[in-house]
Design brief:
five-stranded antiparallel β-sheet, alpha+beta, 12 strands, single chain, 62% helix
Length: 565
């Protein structure tokens, strides 16, 4: 009885208010889960790097054991020190991750892993402390200790990495369940309640204006949702403020328009809008997930629910539409997938590049031995063969080094506030030799102060200036002009020259790694420099392109955000 006295209308509003609160809390939960999902991707990435560094430590330890050259021995020690430091940092990060504290299977694996970690750590430090002249038995003992423990260490790290990946997948699945179940059900209840309130309005026509305004207030309070109503043909009849906020249309601009307007052309061609109405008519509700359009033509990833509206007799008189913006969720999932793929590619590139250097060193060493110890037995033809072998191994070694450098770009840098005028001044000191040797003339104007990565930007400008000098005309001194201007929210830099130029059909190809346009022997190179430039510019969230005319010269443009943080 007390409930009846409270009034059915007020009960509706109370229920709608409670459901709206549930919706808002679930949105907060999803946002927090998105952040946790990004952290998961980082943890999986570091876990993979931990495994990679462990393999490098074992390999370098064995190389120290068998190395007979003192210079090469010290080089291996330096590489071992770097791999050892990175290995320890990755291990400490993983142990501090909050999931380790809450996940019993991972805790147990780390309990097994810790003794192995300590054994490898101690043996590696002892190896680093040894000198080439010291006993080979000591080196062999510590190298064997690293090797013996590393195998078990890798098995446990694989298990830990798999568990971290399972946690990440489970979190994404949980988000999907919450996103597509809880919120969808909540919205269905909301729209059902709205319909229940509207039905008396349709039937009786005697509700007050205040009732309608209160109802409208509930609809308009929903963020990232567009709620509107359509007639039997799919033409918009009622448009909410929440729909305006999400899609950009004012009610007077869109009312009477068909809902096909909100779908991209390729979706319209497939007759998806019409099929959704047909499915809703047959099943009372229809769902769609995909790209939809805003007023300005931009796209966003959405989940749409279309349901029928019935009169008091149960006859279908129209449709209700709920569109939910899932762009952030979509981007988070794409970022997670990309980071996982990048992690795998980085590991492959690093290990493959390092391993490929070893057979090249072996070939080079044997060629040197043959030249030094058997010179009196060789004729000029054999010497020419050996010379060709040395050039080929040197070129292959440089290609592998370029690939390794390309994979490392941006991995350990932090943003700095950089005066690009000072950067170019320092670069000119470094390039003084090649500038004077080629009588190059450089003019530098209007360079700004920006946020960026110091080492990478230095390499970017260096590659572009060196290319401008290298690809000069035989009978002209290089004229190079470096300039910059602010265009909207980006600095647009340009590096122009009067060199040999580039054919238009090669404008895209030159930015791909190992792709060379000039194959003439007088233009040395490996097709890596401009690929580095593109990756560096992309690291700064910018773009790079070229304008050129063969025989006249080239201008390389690249943009860097003025507000990069």
């Amino acid at each position: 009885m007390k409930l009846l006295k409270f009034g059915r209308k007020n009960i509706y509003y109370l229920l709608l208010g409670v459901l709206t609160l549930i919706l808002l809390f679930s949105q907060v939960y999803l946002q927090e889960t998105l952040i946790e999902s990004r952290n998961d991707a980082t943890v999986v990435n570091i876990s993979g790097k931990q495994r990679m560094h462990s393999q490098m430590i074992a390999k370098l330890s064995l190389q120290l054991r068998y190395e007979e050259d003192p210079v090469r021995f010290e080089e291996y020690k330096k590489e071992l020190a770097e791999a050892h430091d990175s290995w320890k940092q990755a291990h400490h990060y993983l142990k501090k991750h909050e999931d380790v504290l809450d996940h019993e299977p991972i805790q147990k694996l780390f309990i097994e892993l810790d003794p192995l970690f300590e054994e490898i750590d101690i043996a590696s430090e002892r190896l680093l402390a040894l000198r080439f002249s010291q006993s080979g038995d000591s080196i062999a003992m510590y190298a064997n200790k690293v090797r013996d423990n590393e195998k078990s260490f890798l098995v446990l790290m694989d298990s830990i990495t798999n568990l971290f990946e399972d946690l990440s997948v489970a979190r994404i699945s949980k988000m999907s369940i919450v996103e597509f179940s809880l919120l969808a059900i909540t919205l269905l209840i909301i729209i059902t309640e709205i319909i229940l309130i509207f039905r008396p309005l349709i039937k009786q026509g005697d509700r007050t204006k205040a009732d309608f305004l209160n109802l409208n207030k509930v609809i308009n309070s929903l963020n990232n949702y567009a709620i509107f109503f359509m007639d039997l043909e799919g033409n918009v009849q009622t448009w909410s403020d929440s729909a305006t906020n999400l899609k950009g249309y004012l009610s007077e601009e869109v009312e009477g328009s068909n809902h096909r307007t909100f779908y991209p052309t390729e979706v319209q061609i497939q007759k998806t809008p019409e099929q959704l109405l047909l499915d809703a008519r047959n099943n009372q509700v229809a769902k769609y997930e995909g790209w939809v359009l805003k007023k300005d033509g931009s796209r966003f990833w959405a989940s749409k629910t279309i349901m029928t509206i019935n009169d008091a007799a149960g006859k279908i008189i129209g449709y209700g539409n709920i569109t939910h913006d899932l762009t952030d969720f979509k981007k988070a999932e794409e970022v997670r997938v990309i980071e996982m793929k990048n992690k795998e590619m980085e590991q492959f590139t690093y290990i493959a590049s390092h391993d490929l250097q070893e057979p090249l060193r072996t070939i080079s060493n044997y060629v040197q031995v043959i030249e030094e110890d058997h010179a009196h037995e060789l004729n000029q033809t054999i010497f020419s063969y050996l010379s060709s072998m040395k050039r080929a191994t040197r070129r292959m070694s440089n290609l592998i080094k370029g690939l390794l450098d390309h994979s490392r770009l941006g991995k350990s840098s932090e943003l700095e506030y950089i005066d690009t005028n000072d950067l170019m001044s320092e670069l000119m000191v470094d390039l003084k030799g090649i500038v004077e040797e080629n009588n190059a003339h450089l003019k530098i104007e209007n360079l700004p102060k920006i946020n960026g990565y110091q080492v990478e930007l230095n390499q970017l400008f260096q590659n572009l200036v060196i290319n401008a000098i290298k690809f000069k005309k035989p009978d002209e001194e290089p004229q190079i002009f470096v300039n910059c201007e602010l265009i909207e929210n980006s600095w647009r830099f340009s590096v122009s020259d009067n060199g040999i130029g580039i054919k238009q059909k090669y404008f895209d190809r030159i930015f791909k790694i190992f792709q060379r346009v000039q194959t003439s022997s007088k233009y040395e190179g490996y097709g890596i420099g401009l690929a580095h430039c593109k990756k560096i510019v992309q690291l700064h969230e910018g773009e790079i392109w070229v304008k050129s005319k063969e025989g006249v010269g080239s201008t390389f443009y690249f943009t860097l955000p003025s507000n990069l943080i």
